[in-house]
Design brief:
By secondary structure, the protein is mostly helical. Helices cover 76% and strands 4% of the residues. It has 11 helices and 5 strands; from the N terminus they run αββααβαααββααααα. The protein is globular, with a radius of gyration of 27 Å.
């Protein structure tokens, strides 16, 4: 009887150990085994979906059309083949790609009534989103440097800002942005996830994805914060330095007309920088204070969707050269249309 009792306890303990091992193996699910994530979006109410779809479709079409008009104006007018408009055309191209990374997928999900995004699609969307955000920041910094050289060193402007340097600066912006987005995505690939794969956002946002991980995220958070400080704070410091020099240079001008001309040359760029950085800072400060992912998703619309839409209006409404180039292009297209003459036969 005693031997039977000992045998049963051994069997029970071994079965408990075996079940414990099974439970331990089933607890984490590796990211490569997850087929898709779920993007919760803004609202789960069905009656709001047509309104959200129409609003974002309109914003997207306006963004693409406005930035395409900037590209058309710069490419069609030889007078606009200058460093400032070269950087502006690159910014317009990036804004089109930036918006196209997130909005079309959201529109498709609303139309198909599906919130799913594949694992590969999520990583790809996150890569291009980080890439184009970085490009926006770097290009705004380069444009601030261009304004600094134009106002503080006008006699040497064409020598300093030669075409080779402009192309090199844009190339450096692309390389740095590609390396940063590649690093962030490679760090995300090492994460393991539990069964919760719902992202409370309208796109695959890096911070929200890290919060879903079951594995240790300390290294991911450190890399994210370090890159944000280096690649976000560094360019912002460069913009502030450039404009501090511009302000001191304008203050030293004796001509009121010269001061007005210098300020008007910087007004559009300053407006875009203010709008972009203030919305980004507002999003992350509000999300850190409230810890509400849905409010963060709504606030992130400002810099990821609204700002790229407003940029063409800011640059075109305050810029006579852009308006004249567009007017000349459309007038030329109208006058170059073939005229067909029909002869009326006499009775």
């Amino acid at each position: 009887m005693q031997g039977h009792l000992m045998l049963s306890t051994e069997v029970d303990s071994s079965s408990n150990i075996h079940s414990g091992i099974q439970f331990h193996h089933m607890e984490p699910v590796n990211l490569t085994q997850i087929s898709e994530f779920v993007l919760l979006g803004f609202s789960e109410k069905p009656e709001l979906q047509p309104l959200i779809f129409g609003l974002f479709l309109s914003i997207y079409l306006i963004t693409v059309l406005g930035n395409l008009l900037i590209l058309l104006a710069v490419s069609s007018d030889s007078h606009l083949h200058t460093p400032m408009y070269f950087f502006l055309s690159n910014l317009s191209l990036v804004d089109i790609c930036f918006t196209s990374t997130t909005v079309p997928k959201m529109l498709v999900n609303i139309q198909t009534q599906s919130k799913a995004i594949t694992y590969a699609g999520c990583i790809t969307q996150m890569y291009f989103y980080i890439h184009f955000v970085g490009l926006d920041i770097f290009l705004l910094t380069v444009m601030a440097y261009d304004r600094f050289v134009a106002i503080c060193h006008p006699l040497h402007y064409t020598v300093i800002m030669n075409p080779r340097l402009c192309e090199l600066l844009v190339l450096i912006c692309w390389i740095m942005s590609i390396l940063n987005s590649l690093l962030q995505c490679l760090m995300a690939l090492r994460l393991s996830f539990c069964m919760d794969v719902e992202i409370p956002h309208f796109f695959c946002e890096l911070n929200q994805m890290i919060k879903l991980a079951c594995s240790d995220t300390f290294l991911n958070n450190m890399v994210t914060y370090f890159s944000a400080l280096l690649l976000g704070g560094g360019p912002f410091a460069g913009i502030l330095y450039s404009y501090s020099k511009i302000v001191s240079c304008i203050h030293g001008m004796s001509s009121a007309q010269g001061k007005y001309k210098a300020l008007s040359a910087c007004a559009s760029h300053l407006s875009v920088v203010f709008l972009f950085y203030c919305t980004i800072l507002g999003v992350y400060l509000s999300s850190a204070a409230t810890h509400n992912a849905r409010s963060s998703a709504t606030a992130s619309v400002m810099y990821s969707v609204v700002t790229p839409m407003l940029n063409p209006f800011i640059y075109s409404l305050r810029n006579k050269d852009i308006k004249q180039a567009l007017k000349a292009f459309f007038v030329k297209e109208t006058t170059n249309r073939p005229v067909v003459l029909r002869l009326k036969t006499c009775p």
